[in-house]
């Protein structure tokens, strides 16, 4: 076990629950550090169900193309914990991360606090101690009681599309979930809203009005669309004719447009050439990521495609299915693993019309709360889909190699995506 893993293991034992949404435990710890959350660069706070990470990836690409130093806070990580904390453009190095985690552990002195809370305190201290021009801050879950929701006056807030996810923590209706996400809105901070279903839109609108905020709404105040392979964006400031996003999928035109609108509405110093450069260079691992080389890729013939996506809820699955449908037709093989907090049927439903040639189910390695491979296969077959259980990702790929000219998509979980990247030797940087 590495030093980092040993520290993280100790921190995970400080509270009996992995998730216990509250700010009461971390505020005293932040106070002991001199409240670093009050000493951050101008911050853009992002909540929502899907597209948070992609939206932040675009914002980072735009700002860095404009020559700005950008902090980023994302979760969860895929391969290494370092991926959660990007300092002025670079992932935090391991010695500095270890020292910061150990300092937080010592100052906390054994007090009960969740893993995400204590590591978020560590991130805030690192962000406050490192010069940068902006901080892009992603919520972990929800908004109101999310550990990131201690920044009193962000430069701006973004709420990406809200859908059903984490109902056991955020509420059982779309209105309840949207109300929780709306908790990041702050009086005096501008806001931009992604495409929303009517029920969520009504809740977000009321929350914004109570705070005196007039948000920009995607689909009304700004638009972005694929026109002849170009991203055409329009808002009250005019029209931009831009190259397509480097991230594949029709939904990425929406995500990129949301980030462009936020950049303009929040007054970020990004001009049209920087938007264009950022769109060409943007990257976001395990979001319809092509795997072109590596240990696992070598198990497939050259004629096969291999894609990896960590989407795990119905909204993400629908976007993923639309992306596959937009491609040149090829035999489709899904290699799928899921956590048992998700229903395989909900994830697979958007793929039924694509008539996958084969679904190869597996149990996510090292995850006690993963669906058993046979259970996924049984439930897929009950939907009329061809499915069978496999014992490992390697076995699944070897099976897929026997299907001529196949498009192989590994999907269903970020935990599975992280395991695949590690086994393939593709570590995010």
Automatic annotation (TrEMBL):
What are the GO BP annotations of this UniProt entry? Answer: folic acid biosynthetic process; tetrahydrofolate biosynthetic process
Q: What class of enzyme is it?
A: ligase
List the GO cellular component terms: cytoplasm
Cofactor(s) in the UniProt record:
Mg(2+)
Pathway(s) it belongs to: Cofactor biosynthesis; tetrahydrofolate biosynthesis; 7,8-dihydrofolate from 2-amino-4-hydroxy-6-hydroxymethyl-7,8-dihydropteridine diphosphate and 4-aminobenzoate: step 2/2; Cofactor biosynthesis; tetrahydrofolylpolyglutamate biosynthesis
Q: Name one GO molecular function term.
A: tetrahydrofolylpolyglutamate synthase activity
A family per Pfam: Mur_ligase_C
Magnesium keyword on record: yes
Give the InterPro entries listed for this entry. Folylpolyglutamate_synth (IPR001645), Folylpolyglutamate_synth_CS (IPR018109), Mur-like_cat_sf (IPR036565), Mur_ligase_C (IPR004101), Mur_ligase_C_dom_sf (IPR036615)
The EC number(s) given in the record are: 6.3.2.12, 6.3.2.17
What keywords tag this UniProt record?
ATP-binding, Folate biosynthesis, Ligase, Magnesium, Metal-binding, Nucleotide-binding
Q: Into which family does the record put it?
A: Belongs to the folylpolyglutamate synthase family.
Its biological purpose:
Functions in two distinct reactions of the de novo folate biosynthetic pathway. Catalyzes the addition of a glutamate residue to dihydropteroate (7,8-dihydropteroate or H2Pte) to form dihydrofolate (7,8-dihydrofolate monoglutamate or H2Pte-Glu). Also catalyzes successive additions of L-glutamate to tetrahydrofolate or 10-formyltetrahydrofolate or 5,10-methylenetetrahydrofolate, leading to folylpolyglutamate derivatives.
Stated name of the protein:
Dihydrofolate synthase/folylpolyglutamate synthase
- The record lists the organism as Devosia lucknowensis
